[in-house]
Amino acid sequence: MTLRSFASAVGLFLAAAALPACSPPILAVPDAAAVATSEWPAFGGDLGGQRYAALDVITPGNVTGLGVAWTYRHGDVSDGEGDIPSTTAFENTPILDQGTLYLCTPFNRVIALDPVTGGERWTHDPKIDLSGRYANQLVCRGVALWRDAVAAPDAPCARTVFTATNDARLIALDAATGAVCDGFGASGEVDLNPAAGEQRWKGEYQVTSSPAVIGDVVVVGSAVSDNGRIDAPSGVVRGFDARTGAQRWAWDLAPPDFDRETGLTSDEGHALGTPNVWGPMSVDLALGLVFVPTGNAAPDYYRGDRQAMSHYGSSVVALRGETGEVAWSFQTVHDDLWDFDVPAQPTLTTITRDGVPRPALVQATKMGLLFVLDRETGEPLLPVEERPVPTRGAPGEVISPTQPFPLTPILVRDTIDPDDAWGVTPWDRGKCREQIERYRFDGMYTPPSVHGTIMYPGNAGGSNWGGIAVDPVRQVALVRSSDVPWVVRLIPRESFQRERDADPDHEYGPQIGAPFGLRRDLLMSPLGLPCVAPPWGTLASVDLRTGAIRWQVPHGSVRDVAPVPLPLTWGVPGIGGPLVTRSGLTFIAGAMDDYLRAFDTESGEELWKGRLPAGGQATPMSYAVNFEDGSKRQYVVIAAGGHARAGTTLGDHVVAFALDAR
Fold it and tell me: What does the H/E/C string look like for 43-109?
């Protein structure tokens, strides 16, 4: 059962008279002309992904005065039922540079907007192949910006917007006009597909996250279909010359001793079935490093004699931006068999310890663990220890006897037994108890099994691609976590197709080349609710100097998966990350209801929520505009287009909030 099934089931169980939507007021466009804007030049706010806005126009004292300043609609949405077989998820965070907002739609159209009015300045349509069945839906999380230091400021492509597409092209556009940069690649684009190897269908290989730019090199990873086959397309990460599109380097994530003469490779020699880098990357210009979060090797839940391919799997890896050489790597999961790949952007910040500032990297994970590393060396700044874990796996499987655990609290629950069974009636609680008793669970790293293994947290637990926000002054990380158990069952090859055909309304993965396919379901009661008590989604503040949790509160309600006459803020699963401001506000959408919320960064108190026209499965950004009359207005912008697979409200909206009085 997927999150979309969860949404539907909760709706059937709790549906009642709908509450009024209580939309925020619509604000007037300022009369005075804009003269300057603050910047949000990268997906994560800065190249290190702190998602911190050093702004204080909107404060805890006046945040209740927020209203809708403008709304833009792009039109690119699909529920998979019409001519476009793939569904959409609008996960974009716009960037802002020199007074223009840049964003991309799920169909990979790039759009430039006026930050004051939301008016369209230009649009570029790469005309991607919409006939494919994209494994990770149609998604474009962001674009990247590069300034040519040697070009005249008004020269074509002196400022370049880079975007990577679902059909795996890297495209360069003039930031001023939207025209393609003809000198880049072939007519402004580079085809990423050939080097990845054979694709069994259009959409097995795609790019969903924004490129990273370091110096004059633009770096791009890829998203490869999970659980399809052992020889899946290569997860190769490549660096291209930002002016010409010529490939500078390629790193394919194979182990250092990989034999390219006998191993599975693409025609260009890149190893197949490797981990890949589908999440957002970070950059440290001073160190000359690009930090990449890696997934696990193919397929997710069985590796057999291919454990060596996990060498760089589920890791944070620092690459030298000029050459692609590995500077250091830190593995968050050894020999990952749980789909615990590192999804979140590595967040770069400075932490003061014993009066000494330390360049740090904070990595959020699906396990609800935060790793805090020295970003120069990869060594832990907060202690990490290796702990014994279960090693009894499927026949032929090799299991790591230990896993790394930071000596800090876990942000999600990681234990479950029959006494933890939850339900709204004794009947469904009893059914949950029966399931927990039936399946194997020996802790977070219980290996997948033919009998069926509870994964808690599961592959959608903890933090996902939305990542965290860091307040560098308060020295805290704001972390959004999902907390629901899953069941994974390995199915012997000889019976896999028969079972899949007989009961297709579940999630299956063939894992071709392995002796087992798999089935994956949420651990749910017959009434469609998780078998553990809420909250199923939380927002937390973590002290980065000690790892201590300062506060943790439920995040999200059942409002839009089940209209009910009671404000059931149980905390729900979600996708998307937070934004933190200097004034002490944390903004976040991401839950399965259609709201953008503001929390007090110091206390965790919810201070405001603004109604969205669709699901806000994205991470907000913020900027300020100075006007010629001397006034200043701060905007908070969120993509509200929903997430089809999560079952949230679909749409095509970009919504900007601001205060009425400037």
Answer: CCECCCCCCEECCCCCCCCCHHHEEEEEEEECCCCCECCCCCCCEEECCCCCEEECCEEEEECCCCC
* Tens-place pLDDT, residues 246-301: 999 999 999 999 999 889 999 999 999 999 999 999 999 999 999 999 999 999 99
SS3 10: helix
> Could you tell me the CA-to-CA distances from 537 to 93, 311, 552, 571, 647 in Å, in that order?
21, 32, 10, 4, 16
With a CB cutoff of 8 Å and minimum separation 6, the contacts of 647 are 2, 3, 4, 5, 6, 7, 8, 561, 592
Please tell me the total count of domains within the chain. Answer: 1
Residue 639 β-bridge partners: 654
**Which single residue is written with the structure tokens 């540079």?**
97
Q: Does 339 participate in catalysis according to the annotation?
A: yes
* Catalytic, out of 167, 339, 341, 593: 339
Measured CA to CA, the distance from residue 573 to residue 6 in angstroms comes to 10
Helix (H) or strand (E) holding 205: strand 205-206
Judge whether residue 30 has pLDDT over 90. Answer: no
**Cβ proximity of 52 and 290 under 8 Å:** no
Residue 3 host element (H or E): helix 3-14
* Domain coverage including residue 104: 3-659
Backbone dihedral angles phi then psi of residue 654, each to the nearest 5 degrees: -115, 120
| E-strand stretches of 375-502 | 384-388, 402-406, 453-455, 468-471, 476-482, 486-492
The neighbour count for residue 103, using CB atoms within 10 Å, is 25
Nearest to 231 by CA among 201, 254, 203, 265: 265
Which burial class, exposed, middle or buried, applies to 80 when counting CB atoms under 10 A from its CB (0-12, 13-18, 19+)? middle
Cα angle, residue 362 at apex, residues 356 and 366 outer, rounded to 5°: 155
pLDDT in tens, 91-103: 999 999 999 999 9
- Rounded CA-CA distance 334/332 in Å is 7
How many Å apart are CA 206 and CA 258, to the nearest integer?
Answer: 25
Distance CA 592, CA 605 (A): 20
End-to-end CA distance of the chain: 47
For the chain, give percent helix, strand, coil, nearest 5: 10, 35, 55
Q: What is the per-residue DSSP string for 494-562?
A: HHHHHHHHH--SSEEE--BTSSEEEEEEE-B-TTSSBSSPSPSEEEEEEETTT--EEEEEE---STTTS
CA atoms of 410 and 518, how far apart (whole Å): 28
Distance separating alpha carbons of residues 527 and 432, to the nearest angstrom: 10
Which CATH number is 174's domain given? Answer: 2.140.10.10
The burial class, CB within 10 Å (0-12 / 13-18 / 19+), for 344 is buried
| Tens of pLDDT, residues 577-621 | 999 999 999 999 999 999 999 999 999 999 999 999 999 999 999
